Every structure is written in structure tokens, then in C-alpha cells.
Amino acid sequence: MLATTELQARVYSVLTGASIAGGRVYDQPPQEATFPYVTIGEVFPVPFRTHSRDGEELLHDVNIWSRYNGFREAMLIAEAIKPLFDNTDFETTNFHGVALREGTVWLRDPDGITRHGVLSFRFWLMAKN
Fold it and tell me: What is the pTM (predicted TM-score) of this model?
């Protein structure tokens, strides 16, 4: 199994377990999703190898979507998400990992209503022996 697959499952599990955005966490949101909600975003993996084990460094985005008048609602959701991954150690079935938060971008979508936050995390996953 690839580290990216295990990481996506782990991120989803952590977010839903913490009831982020009322438990509305999606890989692909339904057509008529209720706002606010969170989507598991893009993943950019870079493989590496030590003398004894394989690993991957992954830049992984978590997206927040809100139609609140302003960014406040999305920012509060971001504040709930950050400590779940920022500077944390974790494990998946086949990997040990550590995560650090890279940054956040706040966007107004072209519809003029939707606010969009992108939280970027950097994960380092090392295969278990």
C-alpha cells in the first residue's frame, strides 16, 4: 500500500473523529453539500530512501468551504484542525510519521459567496520494518 493512500485514510479518520465541520468531511463532496464542510485536498508526494527503509515526504492540503458572511467561520474551523496535525507524531498501518503545518491561504471564490481556506501540512512517512 502506498503512503499516500494510508495518509489520506488517516487524515479523514482524524477529521471525522474530531467532528470537524459537524462531521461533514469529504474526499468528493456531494453536489448539494451543506456548508460549512471540509474536503481532503491535493497530495504532492516525494519518495525518499534511507539505507534501510523507504519513505515519502508529502505536502497534503485540507480545504475548508464556508458561505458565512466573511472568513470567521472558516477560520474557526481551521483553528480546530491545526492542532490535530501540526507538530504531531502518528502511525498508519505500514508507516510511522510526523506532520508539520506549512501554512494557510484564504480565498474568496468567484461566486462571491463561498470562502475557501487551504491548510497545507507537510508529512514525513517512514516505512515500518
Answer: 0.90
Condensed to tens digits (0 to 9), the pLDDT of residues 77-90 reads: 999 999 999 888 88
Split into its structural domains, the chain has a count of 1
Distance CA 41, CA 33 (A): 16
CA distance 32 to 116: 17
Q: How far apart are CA 74 and CA 70, in angstroms?
A: 9
Angle ∠(75,89,39) on CA atoms, nearest 5: 35
* CATH number of the domain bearing residue 86: 3.30.2000.30
- Name the residue range of residue 114's domain: 3-127
Q: Give the end-to-end CA distance of the chain in Å, rounded to a whole number.
A: 14
